[in-house]
Design a protein that fits this description.
Elements lengths: L1 H23 L4 H9 L3 H26 L7 H17 L5 H13 L3 H30 L7 H25 L2 H5 L4 H14 L6 H26 L6 H14 L11 H12 L4 H28 L4 H8 L5
Helix pairs in contact: 1-12, 2-13, 3-4, 3-6, 3-10, 4-5, 4-13, 5-6, 5-14, 6-7, 6-9, 6-10, 6-11, 7-9, 10-11, 10-13, 11-12, 12-13
Length: 322
């Protein structure tokens, strides 16, 4: 466990340095700072409100996904989600997802396997949604300009990855997996919990999750659009979809705290394709990190300090998965 964490951290920091170099290449740091200082507080406040609404809707969706395992109250789910998202901001390589499962086990007694399965389902729907958003944005953009080879490559790669994940999840939701490992009781028990979670994909509850996922990406996209607007650039509909898709997918790449580097690169790439400057892109990404992500990290830190610090120690110790 500790070796895996070290590898994740090293990979995240390496990606941060690489993508920061790509994003900041030939971008004057003074221009970025000047753009940040001139940010419009009204549009920034709108971005913050939309981001808060986004988190509230994500909490509701996660509560629905968790329902087969336990009827967890909304405030409890919200607390756990904020802790996980906040630690994703603080720590490299999305290690907050592991802490989210650990936090749920320690605080509410749910097995780590179930917690991790619910997170995989959550991220699967997010991935399929943002790939679709990016694809629609690129399709609409072809009316007025040539496609970006890099953005098309991102769309194809991400679509293939999440398509494979969906197929694997559907297989795990079927009865065949349990039969294959029936002679191995310990593995069979873990798989049974995973299967119970993935059964969502074959039930009517998937309609609730799909609809809610679509609703989630309204305030999510608006928070990105408002952040860009705050630094002086108004994006059209197609370009807003492209930025939302590229920015969301960039957070899946191992990176440093607050998705530093990968988010700057995604913003610079998408805004450059929209006709804006790389300076605006880097500034908008940095503004999003400082004013939307960092506050979530501070709230998560407060929640952990307030009687939940043992969760961090347990996760770092790498205890055996239940």
């Amino acid at each position: 466990m500790k070796t895996r964490v070290i590898i994740q951290v090293a990979a995240g920091l390496a990606c941060t340095l690489f993508f920061l170099w790509l994003a900041l290449h030939r971008v004057p740091s003074g221009a970025v700072i000047a753009t940040l200082r001139s940010a419009d507080p009204v549009w920034l406040a709108a971005a913050i409100l939309c981001y808060a609404a986004n988190l509230g809707l994500r909490t509701w969706r996660w509560q629905i996904i968790l329902r087969p395992a336990a009827a967890v109250p909304y405030p409890a789910v919200a607390k756990t989600l904020v802790v996980g998202y906040g630690l994703n901001v603080i720590m490299p390589a999305r290690l907050g997802e592991l802490f989210r499962a650990e936090f749920f086990k320690k605080a509410y007694g749910l097995p780590r396997v179930w917690g991790l399965t619910s997170i995989v389902i959550e991220r699967l729907f997010d991935g399929l949604a943002v790939v679709t958003i990016l694809g629609i944005g690129l399709l609409l953009a072809t009316v007025t300009r040539r496609l970006s080879g890099v953005l098309v490559g991102v769309f194809i790669t991400a679509g293939a990855i999440f398509g494979v994940v969906l197929l694997v999840a559907l297989c795990l939701a079927g009865p065949l997996t349990s039969r294959l490992f029936a002679s191995l009781p310990r593995i069979a028990t873990q798989l049974a919990m995973m299967q119970r979670g993935f059964e969502l994909l074959r039930s009517r509850r998937i309609i609730e999750v799909v609809v809610l996922t679509l609703v989630i990406y309204v305030p999510d996209s608006l928070s990105v659009w408002f952040a860009v607007k705050a630094v002086g650039l108004t994006l059209g509909f197609a370009d807003a979809l492209i930025l939302e898709g590229a920015a969301s997918l960039s957070t899946l790449v191992p990176s440093g705290p607050a998705f530093l580097g990968t988010l700057q690169f995604a913003y610079a790439l998408a805004i450059g394709y929209a006709g804006g400057t790389r300076t605006i892109g880097v500034a908008a990404a940095t503004l999003f990190q400082l004013c939307l992500m960092v506050p979530v990290a501070l709230i998560a830190t407060g929640l952990l300090i307030h009687g939940s610090g043992s969760v961090i120690y347990s996760a770092l110790a790498g205890k055996e998965v239940d």
